[in-house]
Every structure is written in structure tokens, then in C-alpha cells.
Amino acid sequence: MFDAAKKVFSGVRESTVITNNLSRGRRSPMKILVVEDDNSIAQAVAATLSQQQRCLVDIAADGQEGWELATAFSYDLILLDVMLPKLDGMSLCRQLRQKGDRIPILMLTAKDTSSDKVVGLDAGADDYVVKPFDFPELIARVRALLRRGSTALPPVLEWGDLRLDPSSCEATYGQQILHLTPREYALLELFLRSPRRTFSRSAIVDRLWNLEDPPQENTIKSYIKSLRHKLKTAGAPSDLIETVYGLGYRLKPLESETSHPESTASNLDEMQQEILSVVVKFREVFTVGIGDRLAVLEQAVEALCRGTLDNGIQKQAVREAHKLAGALGSFGFAQASQLAQEIESLLEDKNGDRFTYCLRLCQLLEELEEQIKQAPDKANLDRLFLN
User: Residue 199: what are its φ and ψ, rounded to 5°?
Assistant: First the structure.
């Protein structure tokens, strides 16, 4: 515990320098723990979070260290890899929940089956991201979880002068209180929770009515008409709730959103370029140390071909292939990531003809080494930021 405390103190001090340089004046930055044994991925995620979210980030390289840090310090979010040495991510997540810790947990894994996701969520995770992941999507998931865990009370929903407070169940426009029926209130809340979405009549019915009590054909139209009238009486424009013909209803876009679309696009491009620069930097760090990982795979394949592969070497090789699959895809090596996934799958499977397995594994290793020597496909890097 003392070693972990010393490490995190050093990490916090270093992270604070980064954060203060990027976000002066913020009094209480969020604090995130990344539990990931792939150092290149961990460092890239930490740097991206520090840059984009202006938060402090600590890194634990194994599950046991993650447990020590999570129980010794207070965090706003944990990013937790599943396949970890000493203590796997699923077990760590269960231990934290059994301890009564409700901190949001975002699972990271290269496993993409429904059963893996179910196990992770049942263990207590709040969300699940599959490697290789897109960095902008990961940051968006982090933001969502931080918003969810940042306040004990539901956030006030606002759209221009329209305001709805779920805590008091009060809706206002400007200074005028809206006197709404329960169904009108629910309809307005639905629009405010997804203010840019167009809701069809069937979508509104699905959200606000149960199957045993479906509304009449003109019921939705009547509620929209009544809600518009009450909003207009309070001073809102008559088209605050727009009809999108053939699609449904939505809140009218704010002038600030429609008058400067190029500014929004410019900000998004700037954010993506910042993330891309971080990814490129740590991709170079990742490629420098990749030879050691390939050596582990080669050792395992050679042992398999000789018939001397033991459980220790096999598990180590499976773990390295697993980490390679996630890191390669996240850093833009899409085809190499697929090759690493196939290597992992073959190394995990002990059944079948050994000669056939060895032949295929040797072929995959050769292809993997060739792919890694090449620069990552620009299209793959673009994909990471345009999806």
C-alpha cells in the first residue's frame, strides 16, 4: 500500500502540472484512475484525458495496484481493463462493488461477445468499451459517466429560456411557471433530455405510454397542441416545438447553434486534431517496444511446434496477443489488430491438430511483423476520428 501511495502521489503531482497548464483557474479537477497493463495505451488514454477533460489521471499497471489506489484515494471515475495481471478487471470491479464503492467504472477489453459484456455489467461496470476503441468515442463515454456521477441531484434541463427542474418537477419559460399536466410534463422532459432529436409519434408512445394503455390516434397531436399553447402563453415562440413533416416533433434549434455552424465544426476539428496528436505520439512509443511482445509470441509458437508449450508460456502469450490486438487497432493498425486477434484465439484453443496450428501461427506471425513495419493506414487513422 505504501508503494502504491508513493506512486500515486508522484503521479498526481505530475498530472497537476499538466492540468494547470491546460486549464488555469479550475479549482477542483476531476480525478480518474486508469487500470491498464499496456503502458502505451494507458499513457495515451491518460494524456488524452488530461488534455481534453482537464482532469488528474493516475495509472495502475495491474489489478492489485488498482485495488490499492482505488481504496486509498477518492476518484471520480475508473477506466478498468479486463485482462490484468495479479487481479483481473472483473474481480476488481466485483470487490469494489462488494465494498460498497459506487464510483463509475468503464470497462476496457478486446473481448467483443455479448456474454463478455453481460459478465462485465453484472460485475458492476457502468459502461463497456471494446478494444480497439476510437479515442473520441472513449472520451465521450467518459464525459457521460462523469456527468452521471458528478451530482446527486438530477441536472436542471435547459434550452434557451425554457427550464425544467426534475428535482422539484417545475418547468418555467423565462420567469413564468408552466402549469402542466403529468403527461405534458413528461412530454416536455422527453424533448429536453434529447433536445436535438426528432421524435416520431411512435417513439413518443413507446417512451410515455405502457402497452396496456396505448393512446388514441390523435392523442399525441392534442398534447403537442396543448403544450405549445401553454409555452406561447408564457412568452415562448409558437414554433418552439417544431413539426418536422414526415418525421415527428423536436425542439426548435437555438439561434446560437444555427448562426455559427462553422464555429462548431471548427471546434470539433480542433479537438480531434488534439486527440490525434496525442495518439500519434504514444503510437511511436508503442512501436518502439513492440519487439519484446513479438518475441513472447515467437517463443510460444516455437514451444508449441516442439510440443513443450507449458501453461505459463501459453498464458503469457495469450495476454500479449490480447494486448496487441487492442493497442494495434487503437493506434491505427487495423489489419495487424485482426491478425493479433486470430493469434490470441489459436493460442487459447488447445484442441485440434498441432501441425496445422503451428503452420497457421507461423504464417500469422510473419504477416503481423510485416504489417507492423508499415506505417498505419491514413484511412484507418481518419476512421478513428470520423466515426
Answer: -100, 125
In 3D space, the residue among 330, 360, 334 whose CA is nearest the CA of residue 345 turns out to be 360
Dist CA 23 CA 20 (whole Å): 5
- The DSSP call for residue 62 is S
Cβ atoms of 45 and 279 closer than 8 Å = no
Q: What cell was used for 4?
A: 502504491
Nearest one of 146, 36, 149, 31 to 89, comparing CA atoms: 36
Q: Please answer whether residues 341 and 110 qualify as being in contact, where contact means their C-beta atoms are separated by less than 8 angstroms.
A: yes
Number of other CB atoms surrounding residue 58 within 10 Å = 26
Please name the amino acid found at residue 284: E
Q: What's the length of the chain?
A: 387
Whether residue 11 has pLDDT greater than 60: no
* Strand ranges across the sheet with 176-177: 157-159, 162-165, 170-173, 176-177
The DSSP letter of residue 180 is -
| Under 8 Å between Cβ of 29 and 55 | yes
**What is the DSSP secondary-structure string of 158-179?**
EETTEEEETTTTEEEETTEEP-
**pLDDT above 60: residue 378:** no
CA geometry: angle at 157 spanning 271 and 261, to 5°? 35
CA-to-CA distance for 269 and 386, rounded, in angstroms?
10
- pTM for the predicted model, two decimal places: 0.58
Q: For residue range 81-137, what is the model confidence (pLDDT) as tens digits?
A: 988 999 999 999 999 998 888 889 999 877 656 666 777 788 888 888 888 788 888
pLDDT, position 1: 46
Neighbour count for residue 355 (Cβ, 10 Å): 9
**8 A C-beta contact, residue 292 and residue 345:** no
**For residues 93 and 258, which has the higher predicted lDDT (pLDDT)?**
93
For residue 163 the three cell numbers come to 427550464
Question: Distance (Å, rounded) from C-alpha 161 to C-alpha 235?
Answer: 10
60: exposed, middle or buried (Cβ count in 10 Å: 0-12, 13-18, 19+): buried
CA atoms of 276 and 282, how far apart (whole Å): 10
Phi and psi at 320, nearest 5°, equal -65, -40
Query: And the C-alpha cell for 123?
Result: 460485475
Give 71-132 as a DSSP string.
Answer: HHS--SEEEEESS-SSS-HHHHHHHHHHTT----EEEEES--SHHHHHHHHHTT-SEEEESS
